[in-house]
Write a structure and sequence with these properties.
Blueprint lengths: L5 H24 L7 H9 L5 H35 L11 H16 L4 H23 L8 H25 L4 H8 L8 H20 L1 H7 L3 H6 L4 H23 L5 H13 L3 H23 L10 H20 L4
Helix pairs in contact: 1-3, 1-13, 2-3, 3-8, 3-11, 3-12, 3-13, 4-5, 4-6, 4-7, 4-11, 5-6, 5-11, 8-11, 8-13, 9-13, 12-13, 13-14
């Protein structure tokens, strides 16, 4: 733990928030269209209808905001899942929640021709909830009951199953391929502000509730028997935390597709900075998760310019080495 005093933790958190704001400003400026800070400032203070101002308003501002919200949501969801399951690899992507939500949306698009943003949101929630229940149920089988390894294997199996089913549907229904292929790779490119506004009424309260619940999560991580001995209603806390994960994971998939590794890497980095106190981990995850996804989105614009790489590819490139390290350390390999 690097930040030991409360004052230092607040200072580092504010510094992280400042970095997030700078990255969001960079997201408004950098890209294929030639813009700068003055043009971006003029786009909001004296909009003239030029191509540059339209791009900043209609393209770059939504993707900057979506990147920050989705990154924060995935990181918080990962932190809560790791706390509840005591599994260092727990995250919406590893446990198949992203893949399940994505599969449900692909089914809705390819078979039922759904094209409503509000419908995508509720369908993603349903997919996330179904996957979470199935993974928990499968991971609980056996004499030892629920274990981190069994949860990881169950999540990986469900992720592979839903990914295979998704690809199969797209092969059968080629007309839906163009509509969802880029989205399935995980991307904030081309997303409209309406996409964010469709999930924000659910995601924002879930983020706030996660911070309110953080102290109870601290108690729960001490062990269920200890938590019950201290008078905590552990069933209620677990159910509330699970609902938060479903809303944050499903909402993120509905807006940006299944983006991996944010939910694994950021919670570990937050614990490295502030220790195991979830009163600090969750706000740190919100800031650092948003910053990482916005940063990855900026990088994605320059790798194969003038084309863009889906931001999900960038987060995979950034997160894979961390995933390997965490997996080796978390399961006791040398």
């Amino acid at each position: 733990m690097l930040s030991k005093s409360t004052k230092l933790k607040i200072t580092v958190l504010l510094l992280g928030f400042a970095i997030l704001l700078l990255l969001m400003c960079g997201s408004l400026i950098f890209g294929y269209a030639n813009t700068n800070l003055k043009i971006a400032y003029d786009a909001f203070t004296s909009f003239d209808g030029s191509n540059e101002h339209i791009i900043i308003h209609n393209v770059r501002l939504p993707r900057a905001l979506i990147g920050a919200v989705v990154g924060a949501s995935l990181a918080i969801a990962g932190a809560i899942m790791q706390a509840l399951t005591k599994n260092p690899l727990a995250s919406p992507s590893v446990f198949g929640i992203n893949a399940g939500a994505g599969f449900f949306i692909v089914v809705a698009v390819s078979l039922f021709y759904v094209d409503s943003l509000q419908a995508y949101t509720w369908i993603a929630f349903a997919g996330a909830a179904t996957t979470a229940f199935v993974v928990y149920f499968i991971g609980s089988f056996g004499r030892e009951g629920l274990t981190p390894m069994k949860l990881t294997l169950a999540g990986a199996a469900m992720a592979a199953l839903f990914s295979s089913l998704t690809q199969g549907l797209l092969v059968v229904n080629e007309s839906a391929l163009d509509q969802v292929l880029f989205w399935l790779a995980g991307s904030v490119q081309g997303r409209k502000m309406e996409s964010l506004l469709s999930v924000l009424p659910y995601v924002a309260p879930a983020i706030i509730l996660s911070m309110i619940l953080s102290q109870k999560i601290n108690v729960l991580t001490m062990g269920e028997d200890v938590a019950k001995g201290l008078g905590q209603r552990t069933g209620f806390v677990k159910l509330t935390a699970a609902l938060i994960v479903i809303v944050l994971g499903g909402g993120s998939v509905a807006v940006a597709g299944p983006i991996a590794f944010i939910g694994i890497v950021i919670p570990h980095f937050a614990r490295f900075l502030v220790g195991n106190d979830y009163r600090w981990i969750i706000p740190y995850c919100a800031v650092l998760g948003g910053a990482l996804l916005v940063f990855a989105d900026i990088l994605a614009r320059f790798i194969v310019m003038p084309e863009e790489v889906p931001v999900g590819v960038m987060t995979a490139l950034i997160g894979t080495p961390f995933f390997v390290y965490i997996a080796r350390r978390g399961f006791g390999q040398k």
